[in-house]
Amino acid sequence: MSVALETINLEKRFGGLVATNKVSFRLAQGGRHALIGPNGAGKTTFINLLTGVLPSNGGQVLLNGEDVTRLSQQQRARRGLGRTFQINQLFAAMTPVESIGLAVSERMGGGADFWRGLGTRTDIIDEVLELLERFRLTDVMDHPTARLPYGKQRLLEIAVALAGNPRVLLLDEPAAGVPEAERQELLDTLAALPKDVSILLIEHDMDLVFTFADRITVLVNGTHFAEGTPAEVMADPRVREVYLGEEEHA
Ligand SMILES: Nc1ncnc2c1ncn2[C@@H]1O[C@H](COP(=O)(O)OP(=O)(O)OP(=O)(O)O)[C@@H](O)[C@H]1O
Question: Does ligand 1 lie within 6 Å of residue 220's CB atom?
Answer without folding.
Answer: no
